[in-house]
What does this fold into?
Amino acid sequence: MGLKITIIGKVHDVGYRLLLLELADLLFIEKFDTRNVKIDGKEAVVVLIDGDEGQLNEFVEMVKSEKPEMAVVEEIKVEEYKGRIRDIERFRASFNTVQLSKIVQVGLKMLEKQDQMLQNQDLMLNKMDVMLQKQEETIWEIREVKEIIREEGEKTRSYLGSRIDESKEYLANLTSSPH
It folds into this structure.
């Protein structure tokens, strides 16, 4: 006797089919298939299994009590199934191929994002180089201004010193000459 189990809810791209395969493996179920489908616009996982009655009952109980962490189950339907169900090893081979294809696609997207990030990093480094160059130019300008201020300060001190000396001399002459 075969069973068709339909699990409806947020059940795609959460690892549901892998969990179901693990459960079937635990129970040594030899006929197993599962697919992600849409039913009336809702995500669903359809599971086909065949085995002895004890295996099937235990599988149904496990399906009702276990789910992937990110899954949200709205409804589980269990009904008899009279059609053909493929061998679990054939399902596993097909499933592995599909999962590897998904991994490759994710990897390619990650590489694309990494390339974009590296390009952005290069742009930022170029901007930082320009900023550092401007900062260095500003530092040189500040040094030049400081040197001008130092030179002008020395000139001013020298000028004021000579004027003070002249004033002292003038005052000294005024106080020493008889009137």
About this structure: Helices lie at 16-26, 53-65, 88-176. The chain has a mean pLDDT of 93. The beta strands are 2-10, 31-39, 42-50, 72-81. Residues 17 and 152 are 83 Å apart (CA to CA).
